[in-house]
């Protein structure tokens, strides 16, 4: 917890919000599967810092869209750390109603600058600085979900695992895009993928 606060530069108020969210997640996870139960003891590194490191990749970004927001990573963590900043807004988008109810309760309880949307990511008309996602889909599908956000000027920052290189190779069969890989600070096997200039590849038929 102290290590997270130091690395993230979090205030006492933000730490209190994150701790309240951690407890809320633990209670909800007992009745619905939001995260793997074995990952909860490592909340501060595996979930909180994994999410918070994105702010260091885009320090001037104020508006974020979290696709497949699920348990609130990275979106709720970003909203807590952006709380109080002017123009801060995080959209938490998920297609499953019960996950959205969990997210809405957290947003309301912590008075976060976030909007929960129960719907398909690709159907939204949101304009934001950054579109993000964690553990949602392989890159080929994820780029499809995120394409409307890229068209409105967003850059992509996606939290990915050790298979990301093969996912990018597969995605290039369907998409033209620029991608940069950076090592995750929370897991040596993880990568953060920065994506720009996305357009669908023309069919060869």
Automatic annotation (TrEMBL):
Leading EC class: transferase
Residues that coordinate or bind S-adenosyl-L-methionine: 68, 73, 121-122, 134
Gene Ontology cellular component list: cytosol
EC number: 2.1.1.170
Localization: Cytoplasm
Record keywords: Cytoplasm, Methyltransferase, rRNA processing, S-adenosyl-L-methionine, Transferase
InterPro entries: rRNA_ssu_MeTfrase_G (IPR003682), SAM-dependent_MTases_sf (IPR029063)
Highest taxon of the lineage: Bacteria
UniProt record similarity statement: Belongs to the methyltransferase superfamily. RNA methyltransferase RsmG family.
Function: Specifically methylates the N7 position of guanine in position 527 of 16S rRNA.
Protein's name according to its UniProt entry: Ribosomal RNA small subunit methyltransferase G
Organism listed in the record: Brevundimonas aurantiaca
């Amino acid at each position: 917890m102290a290590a997270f606060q130091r690395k993230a530069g979090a205030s006492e108020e933000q730490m209190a919000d994150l701790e309240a969210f951690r407890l809320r997640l633990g209670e909800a996870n007992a009745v619905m599967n939001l995260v793997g139960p074995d990952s909860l003891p490592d909340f501060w590194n595996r979930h909180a810092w994994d999410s918070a490191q994105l702010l260091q990749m885009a320090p001037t970004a104020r508006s974020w869209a979290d696709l497949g927001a699920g348990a609130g990573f990275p979106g709720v963590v970003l909203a807590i750390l952006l709380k109080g900043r002017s123009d801060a807004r995080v959209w938490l988008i998920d297609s499953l109603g019960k996950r959205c109810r969990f997210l809405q309760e957290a947003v309301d309880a912590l008075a976060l600058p976030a909007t929960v949307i129960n719907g398909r990511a690709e159907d939204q008309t949101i304009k934001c600085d950054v579109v993000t996602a964690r553990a949602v889909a392989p890159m080929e599908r994820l780029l499809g979900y995120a394409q409307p956000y890229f068209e409105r000027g967003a850059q992509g920052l996606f939290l990915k695992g050790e298979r990301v290189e093969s996912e990018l190779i597969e995605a290039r069969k369907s998409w033209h895009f620029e991608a940069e890989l950076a090592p995750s600070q929370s897991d040596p096997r993880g990568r953060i993928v920065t994506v720009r200039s996305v357009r669908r590849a023309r069919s060869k038929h």
